[in-house]
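Q: I'm writing a short explainer about DUF3135 domain-containing protein for a general audience and would like to include a description of its predicted shape. Could you first generate the structure from this sequence?
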Amino acid sequence: MTKLPSFDRLLWMAENTPEKLDALQKRLSKETIAQSRESNQASLTSLLDDLDKRLARCKTPYQRCHLVSSLMFNKLAKLNQVYCQPGEFLQHKAEVVPLRKNAK
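A: Of course. Here's the predicted structure. Afterward I'll give you a sentence or two in plain language.
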């Protein structure tokens, strides 16, 4: 796995070469997903793709920080709800409706 540079180096990259810092972040994220359980990789990849799209719309570093913080808080709140109320979580199941082929 790619070694994370020191904080001072990351700060320098953020101020002088943000594109390299972004590339490092993407590389580390992909490496982390690759090391996760195979059953989780698809959802983590989807989550990363969604995050990248949302971050692309941010205009300032503060917006990016706020967005990531907000997303993490929401996920943590859902995890807390599942942990504290597992019965309620298990009751929410989607109904799968089969699609019919058009008759010709």
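A: For your explainer, you could say: The mean pLDDT is 91.
Q: Perfect, that's easy to follow.
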